[in-house]
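Structure (tokenized):
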């Protein structure tokens, strides 16, 4: 069987690295909205939900939901919809609760949260339902913030009432704790898994050293800086920069975690803030290719704005966009993106290619006649893996003429589309 392949890329108006907010925006609870960089297209329609409802903590993604906890009315809500007409939905309503920190577990589609009234760590399905209690009391006094450690799968909780940082299993067993006056914010870098916490009382930022391979577990803190004023919320942007909300000075600051150097940016409206969430656009040049991928192939001094999706400088037949969606390397003559092998025993052809694990659908279509017979869809898959853990996955398609309804001696023509997944 002869098989020929055609690679194509579809880009429709339905796709953009869009969000409920604009690019390079820091959304902070009181101040409700804060523009980190000039040129930000912030969405003022988000203000009422966070300003009037006394939101405490934030969690979310650019293209999906923005969750926030409200300690005043005992609700956890999320915002969805178009930027100009956002919709607010209550995920959890518990009138006697005082909800503080929240944390998304995207793999299990759950939201972890702290209830400072009952001193519990709980979680709830993103589709709603009855919450599960993971930690109850266990020394908690006024829990502020939490993370689900991506490396160890444990919960880390900061508590300014107990002046402690706690480590719990999801079943509620306390593995370790360490003293930290005014323990408040906590954040984990998505790739290095490094964890940082703030001490509101000391004005300090610490790095966490967690060792779970010994009994008892070890939790140590190493101070990075003590030059902060009332530090509370912490958040990393996608480039790995750590930001801190300094409530004592009404500003958001970026911190170099290697040197301890700090860059301060004042609030536009001082509000004694608590937590923050950074929406950092992955596509500032609006070419539908993530900026971090483009930067991998740039020479020193070059800008991502110099690259265009249709360029093919090495003239290997693969545009920049095709290199991205099929795991190629621009400026280098690549191997063909689709690898084909024939199994004489089964009479089938195996087609392999590297495709994005997240954010794109891949559709394979076949025909045996480029003039007379229309293309037929043979495969449709979406979101094979986690966008953090697996950037590319190997996609496989097994084909034979008979399987596709053609005579056994027919040639097969294969066409593969990569198109952005519906948001």
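Design, position by position:
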């Amino acid at each position: 069987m002869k098989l020929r392949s055609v690679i194509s890329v579809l880009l429709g108006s339905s796709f953009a690295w869009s969000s409920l907010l604009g690019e390079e925006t820091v959304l902070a609870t009181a101040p409700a909205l804060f523009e980190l960089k000039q040129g930000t297209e912030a969405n003022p329609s988000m203000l009422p939900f966070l300003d009037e409802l006394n939101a405490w903590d934030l969690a979310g993604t650019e293209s999906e939901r923005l969750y926030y906890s409200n300690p005043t009315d005992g609700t956890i809500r999320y915002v969805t919809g178009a930027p100009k007409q956002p919709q607010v939905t209550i995920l959890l309503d518990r009138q006697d609760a005082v909800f503080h920190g929240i944390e998304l577990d995207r793999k299990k589609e759950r939201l972890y949260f702290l209830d400072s009234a009952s001193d519990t760590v709980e979680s709830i399905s993103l589709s709603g339902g009855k919450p599960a209690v993971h930690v109850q009391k266990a020394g908690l006094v006024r829990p502020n913030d939490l993370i689900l450690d991506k490396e160890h799968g444990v919960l880390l909780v900061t508590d300014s009432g107990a002046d402690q940082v706690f480590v719990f299993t999801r079943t509620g067993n306390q593995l370790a704790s360490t003293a930290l006056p005014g323990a408040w914010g906590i954040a984990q870098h998505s790739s290095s898994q490094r964890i940082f916490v703030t001490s509101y009382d000391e004005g300090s930022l610490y790095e966490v050293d967690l060792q779970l391979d010994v009994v008892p577990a070890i939790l140590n803190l190493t101070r990075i800086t003590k030059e902060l004023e009332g530090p509370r919320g912490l958040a990393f942007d996608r480039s790995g920069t750590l930001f801190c909300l300094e409530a004592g000075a009404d500003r958001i600051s970026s911190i170099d975690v290697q040197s301890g150097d700090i860059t301060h940016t004042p609030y536009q409206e001082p509000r004694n803030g608590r937590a923050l969430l950074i929406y950092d656009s992955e596509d500032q040049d609006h070419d539908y290719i993530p900026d971090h991928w483009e930067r991998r192939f740039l020479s020193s001094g070059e800008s991502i704005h110099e690259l265009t999706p249709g360029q093919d400088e090495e003239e290997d037949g693969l545009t920049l966009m095709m290199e991205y969606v099929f795991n190629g390397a621009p400026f280098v003559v690549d191997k063909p993106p689709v690898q084909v092998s024939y199994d004489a025993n089964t009479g089938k052809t195996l087609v392999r290619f590297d495709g994005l694990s997240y954010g794109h659908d891949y559709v394979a279509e076949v025909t045996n006649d480029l003039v007379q017979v229309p293309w037929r869809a043979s495969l449709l898959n979406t979101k094979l893996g986690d966008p953090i853990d697996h950037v590319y996955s190997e996609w496989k398609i097994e084909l034979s003429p008979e399987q596709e309804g053609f005579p056994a001696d027919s040639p097969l023509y294969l066409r593969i589309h990569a198109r952005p997944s519906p948001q």
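Reviewer-requested clarification: The helical segments are 47-51, 291-295, 320-325. The chain has three helices and 30 strands.
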